[in-house]
């Protein structure tokens, strides 16, 4: 994860954390947590997102609805 590092926008940081949660992957940080700004730290400490990642079965997320079919794409 490069949240809090490399000049990512807030939206990019949130998207990266969401993808991490869905993939049920281990959390590896590349930023110095002692120097991280409060917004980035709040993303990493979001208990709801962490709970998604820590599914008891350890299974990654899966597609449950293909929106393109609803939009006629």
UniProtKB/TrEMBL annotation:
Q: Which family does it belong to?
A: Belongs to the glycosyl hydrolase 27 family.
GO CC annotation terms, alphabetical = cytoplasm
- Answer whether the UniProt record assigns the keyword Nucleotide-binding to this protein: no
Which Gene3D superfamilies does the entry link to?
Aldolase class I
Name of the protein described by the UniProt record: Alpha-galactosidase
Q: Name one GO biological process term.
A: glycoside catabolic process
Q: Which UniProt keywords apply?
A: Glycosidase, Hydrolase
| InterPro entries registered for this protein in UniProt | Aldolase_TIM (IPR013785), GH (IPR017853), Glyco_hydro_27 (IPR002241)
Which SUPFAM superfamilies is this protein grouped with? (Trans)glycosidases
Annotated GO MF terms: alpha-galactosidase activity
């Amino acid at each position: 994860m490069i949240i809090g590092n490399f000049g990512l926008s807030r939206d990019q940081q949130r998207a990266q954390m969401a993808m991490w949660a869905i993939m049920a992957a281990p959390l590896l940080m590349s930023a110095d947590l002692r120097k991280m700004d409060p917004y980035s730290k709040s993303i990493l400490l979001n208990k709801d997102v962490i709970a998604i990642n820590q599914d008891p079965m350890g299974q990654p997320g899966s597609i449950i609805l293909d929106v393109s079919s609803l939009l006629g794409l």
